[in-house]
Predict the 3D structure of the following.
Amino acid sequence: MEKVLTSKELRKGMKARVATVEEGEDPCTRLMELGLIPGTEFSVTKVAPLGDPIEIEMRGYKLCLRRTETECLRFVELP
Amino acid sequence: MGNPNAGKTSLFNALTGARQKIGNYPGVTVEKISGDFTHEGDTFEVIDVPGLYSMTPVSNDETVAVKVLEGDPEPPKLVVYVLDASNLERNLFLFSQLAETHTNVVVALTLTDVLDKEGARLDLAKLSSHLGCEVVPVIAHKGIGVEALKEAMARALASPDELELDVGFPKVVMDAADRVVDHMNRRGVALGRREARCVLLDEQCTTSERFRGIPELWAVIEEERQTVLGASGQGRTLDAQARYAWAAKVKKDSITPPVERRRSGTEKIDYFLTHRVFGLLFFLGVMYAVFQSIYTLAGPLMDVIDAGKSAVADFVRPMLDGTPVLQSLVVDGIIEGVGSVIIFLPQIIILFFFISVLEGTGYLARAAFLMDRLLGWCGLNGRAFIPLLSSFACAIPGVMSARVMPDERSRIMTVLVAPLMSCSARLPVYVLLIGAVIEPRYGAAWAGFSLFAMHFVGLAVAIPVVLILNKGVFKGKRLPFMLELPKYQWPRWRDVFLTITSRAKVFLVTAGTIIFAMSVLIWALLYFPRGDNPRYEREYSSLSAARQETVSLEQFQELRQREESILGRFGKAIEPAFAPAGFDWRLTTAILAAFPAREVVVPAMGILFGTGGDVDEADEGLVSAIQRSQWPDGRPLMTPWTAMSLMVFFALCCQCMATLAAIKRETNSWKWAAFAFVYMTTLAYVFSVAIQQIGRLVS
């Protein structure tokens, strides 16, 4: 069984895949529209000096998000 | 239209050049930018629709964009979809939604040069056949493809073609949609396949509203939803997955990726500029440079404008000697009013120069990335940093620069607290009072500290204000903070120039008109009713000789005239209200006179404390007059507590009609300007009374 991570546990340089998305919360629809849907693979490219936000690279582009606003997502770390 | 950062504005500038109009969409703070161009004798009107990520809007900006696209006030004859070739998948998500609205579309493909640099190859024909419409590659700032795009637009307008795109939803979804359509049609309810799919996958689909109230129809939909979604009920996930699967396929078919991925220049620069230590140091350096430039570079320019204003006034004054009312109206009302508008231009131009250069290079987004945590916890976000910082020089460019924030809610909050930052016009008051009261008593160290502390009063008060606004005033959805760090590049000087000129124009035309009108109004309130000069002369001659030495007859008459003007009477009338704060009628009148612009407070105090209006904050006569000033019963007026109470009042009070005019302009409503005025003035009053009362208890 793979370990399921929350956004707080993402570290710089980590590669991960979106495992689940909990629909119904406000920011979540938008995150899906931006391409964060179950199965999307990404890597964490930056973490801001103060720990938040983080920048991820997925689907050929990079996006900065707050850890606190991606709580509806769960991730699985990739090797 | 297109995603944010797809190159829409650059393309719009290339199409229309300087022929742009900036207005506002009714009822929201979203700017409406339109323009036109002529191609082979036909004139085309173009609207730059705000950037959006999805046709399901979450912000006012996006709502406006969707409304325009859906035909409010009139359906667009043609949509130019700006597609970022270097970010194809996400850009195609929105395209797949647009393609379902039966519109005539031409695609402008931007940033193909980025693909080339990365070593990727693009198959234009394949992309075009997938999208089902004409695709024109454009590199707007170099002018490449702009003519071809104009031709394609002319062709598409001559023979309109509705886009019909099928992204390929799972069969189970479409079968269910067909069953719903059949069912509805049998009952005589018109429903398309696309709407049926929307109803099935998205609970908030607007079409759902038609059926929610009719139980027997709604039951059918609910049943089919169960079939499609099962227990999870996650229809939007299905929708997004289908669209992204299509987008990924289009990308795979039309772009051959480079053999190996190199570390780009941007990534190398970012290693330093977003680094924990170097990144923050560099950021502080840049912000210091920006702030210093507004603070110091603008000064000499403002002096030139001020001198120019005086020169014009001196030139005009003798010509109107025969008609004193007209003379005063022209010199003190109109020339003063025009001068007080132009005086802000240097700061606005300098700030927008920096902002457009920082934005053009891509650094502005990094600044927001670095600062977001600092501002995010109380409900603002990283993008508010520059507006708030520049407000320490002057709130007007600060308020205007809040437009770098794409989300309306944070924009309004930033605009509302920006005037709390201690602007440079408050400095003379601090220097005067600290010099007169704090320094002689407590020494230079405390004087320096109080000056420093005064700059934090507004900032400290701003935090709870934002928290309250966030919880109480703004209801509804909060947007997730989203930010893309664009690739570094040299700023395009043409875009920098266009930004500066359009901002200066907007300020002069809209905010300037209001400031000018208020100046003339204030002039009238201070000018009428005309005073009784012979009576003032008699009063003057009864003054003591020592008093007469410090104030000339003319100054005395001016003082009495102001006292008995409409504004002056009002100042006297409200004196009791300010007694708990420890202010006498001279201070209340000075405060009142400073409401249009706090710059005038030191000259006003000069007049009121009998040293004449021609003083500055370092004037020794004024300093000693303030130190010697007393209440009628002989108590000293200016205790340290009163000085503090007065300084805090100036720190918090909204004494700047130009700022209010800028707020009105940027929020597109007097409501927010009035709100800022009321809340700041209330806070100022409450705080200054509290300080005076604490002082009374302590001593």
Observations:
- The radius of gyration of chain B is 31 Å.
- Chain B has 33 helices and nine strands.
